[in-house]
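Usage

Read records sequentially. Each one opens with the input sequence:
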Amino acid sequence: MLQLAEEIINGRRLCEEDDLTVFFDADVEEISEGADRIRKALCGERAQLCSIMNGRSGRCSENCRFCAQSAHYHAKCESSEFPQPETFVEGCGHMNEMGVDRYSIVTSGRAMQGADLEKSVAAFQAMHERYPDMMLCASHGLMTVEDMKRLKEAGVSMYHTNVETSRRYFPEICTSHTYEDKLEQIRRARSAGLEVCSGGILGMGETWQDRADMALMLAQLHVRSIPLNFLLPIPGTPLEDRELLSLGEIRHIVAMFRYCNPEAYIRIAAGRIRFPDGGAVLFASGANATLTGDMLTTTGNHTAEDRAILTELGFALRAEGDRRRESGV
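and closes with the structure output:
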């Protein structure tokens, strides 16, 4: 695996023709070391922090089997309407002072339309005007190019839409929309001039081949921000009894995604809280970005703690209160 890491550093890129089964039984320490070498060589020491705020929760029409917000299941999830713009401005300001790079509004539901879309545009405009150096992201479901262009004009630079898993396994997770719907949304976001953030959830019953296929799909799509969530089963959802991934398996997955996406931000999201070291070991296994603060339906890690962890590992972070915009994602 270390030889493969050197080949990737020197320009090799993995594709469908490669035999990725070499990853499946690889030694976790060796593959993690190789992934860390790739990260250092091709991404440097810069790490990103991003934070999300719930814009609308519950009563979702989609039947994603992992999600507490789906109206199809009976998980305990409070429903909420879209807040006033100042609520987001306050949250954005707090995260700006904490040195967070990206701030995102996330909403439940198939799409963002009508009055809620107007509120979202107004919120992003207000945040962009008040904190012009905070990079803003949106996650509003399956939107039109025209509506996403409005978000871009309001200051949004990146759109989030997870592919969730492999093409093969997706129908086992959701049937109210398709894998192709996800891919089309990525194409629409790019047509609107937005960067794309896309990853998924691991530990939903998929195989190692599904994980590899997902990693390669994101590479083929040239996605530069890849959030990896590790399932925390929620009571009341169809996956409530799913066995948790081992911590070693999570490290293994993170490392494989780095090998397949050597220049991307591998962004650790839900599930990191299970690690006694706050997930530090994941940032020595190829990751170089993370969600910080509370998640949508599970508990996240606190930003001050995350800054301490990453600084101790030698990563460079945006200074707290720093208002200088950096190029790229």
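Summary fields computed downstream for this record:
- The longest helix spans residues 114-130.
- The mean pLDDT is 91.
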